Amino acid sequence: MSDLRWPTSARHLIASTTRDEETSVRRPTLLIALTTTALALSACGRDEGGSGADAAPETGEAVSTEDLSGELEVWAMGAEGEALPDLVAGFEEAYPEVSVNVTPVPWDSAHEKFVNSITAGTTPDVAMIGTTWMGEFAGMDALDPTPGSIDSSAFFEGAQGTTEVDGTSYGVPWYVETRMVYYRTDIAEAAGYDEVPTDQAGFHEMAAAMQEQEGVDWGISLQPGQTGSWQTVVPFGWSGGAELATQDAYTLDTPQMVSAVDYFGSFFTDEIADANPPEGQTEATFTDGSVPMFISGPWMMSLVEDFAAEGGEDAFGEMYDVAPVPAADGAESSSFIGGSNLGVFADTENRDAAWALVDWLTQPETQVEWYDMTSALPSVQSAWDDEALTQDEKLAKFGDALTTAQAPPSFPTWEQVAAAFDAEMEKVAKQGLSGEEALQAAQSQADSIGTGQ
């Protein structure tokens, strides 16, 4: 399952069903002049030469923004699909001969709808695409390679990587999110900690020390397997130098990943984390202090603060903070980067206008306006210089974490492999399976599934 089936990272949108009412009056769109012509770069298609990790991705044929006209069909999921029409009105003002129709698509049926439309040849011109779907759709030859006129270096590196399949870029990052440690500063202080240790051993000790405080049941909440648990475990591996794949194979059972899975499992075997936590209780247990740490994305800030406010605690924002995922000795913290990409489908009959819209949606000014409307975090690094994002200290920390965040392999089969990985992580958390045993099983299944290339 794509990480994007979680609620949007929009901080206020997710916490309140009245957000659309609050933003129904759209402030003037900040326009920028798009390039009128683009230099022709490399031809469409995949890179057969096996580009290195640092090589620029192959790109598609040039586009022109001269004399744009016609209609564009855009699909977007969830809250983004509801809010996008207000934003693209600015694009229509800049290009009055282009009409943009946005179709909201429910997340729970989105993947099937896309696959069916690809098979039937009825895809939209432009769409919001889950980051873990890129490899699958590119493997079906459904996506148009990104024109070289779009500057891939403008985006967070990890986010840009989610658009690249076999050396070719097939879209652009639209908005992003990553995961950090949430912790109760008051309980941490009572346990003797002014800040969260950056090393994994020290972090484990802190969780244990916090569990010893009055009213605390568990030192930390970690997802004990099940769908998407890889997003909790893999960052421990990345933060120890692990890599999940080479160019043509999965590498789940490396020593670095074995160490990371054992580290994850230690929280359960040491009974610092609950292997059978009640569902949907994170806000309650965090605000009442019974579970004073968890790992999640930026959307949780509004959820815990709103939950606390409903209980009469209006200053809860001062009682917690966020910190990077702890790293192994000598390594750099690296979390999971999620969010959403924008892609143009290969069957579009209005390619120039489609890519012009994508380019416009990822300009810094437009990204800041989108954040103002929905709180979806910008994928363009320069947009983070805007005061709207820098004034929130916790949010700024998420921006820092995004600079080192990573994405899983873009192989078409990743979601199948991730499901196998998740099943093994549940055994680690609930049955005490070792990292070596769990990853041998996951690697065997990954080898059977293959990369799909």
Element order, helices and strands? HHEHEHEHHEEEEHHHHHEHEEHHEHHHH
Q: Estimate the strand proportion.
A: 5-15%
By CATH, the architecture of the largest domain is named 3-Layer(aba) Sandwich
Distinct helical segment count: 18
- The unreliable regions are 1-53
Q: What assembly state would you assign to the polypeptide chains in this entry?
A: single chain
Residue-averaged pLDDT, rounded?
87
Number of strands: 11
Region (Disordered): 45-65
GO biological process, one term: maltose transport
Pfam families: SBP_bac_1
Keywords: Signal, Transport
Structural summary, described in words:
- It comes from Serinicoccus hydrothermalis.
- Residues 45-65 are annotated as: Disordered.
- This is N-Acetyl-D-glucosamine ABC transport system, sugar-binding protein.
- GO terms for molecular function: maltose binding.
- Keywords: Signal, Transport.
- There is one protein chain.
- This protein is of the alpha+beta class.
- The protein folds into 2 domains: 19-24 and 65-178 and 337-402, D-Maltodextrin-Binding Protein, domain 2 (3-Layer(aba) Sandwich); 180-333 and 413-449, Periplasmic binding protein-like II (D-Maltodextrin-Binding Protein, domain 2, 3-Layer(aba) Sandwich), CATH 3.40.190.10.
- Helix content is 40%, strand content 12%.
- The chain has 18 helices and 11 strands.
- Strands 2-1-3-10-6-11 form a 6-stranded mixed sheet. The chain has a 3-stranded antiparallel sheet with strand order 8-7-9.
- Strand 4 and strand 5 (168-169) form a beta hairpin.
- It is globular and about 65 Å long.
- Residues 1-53 have low confidence and may be disordered.
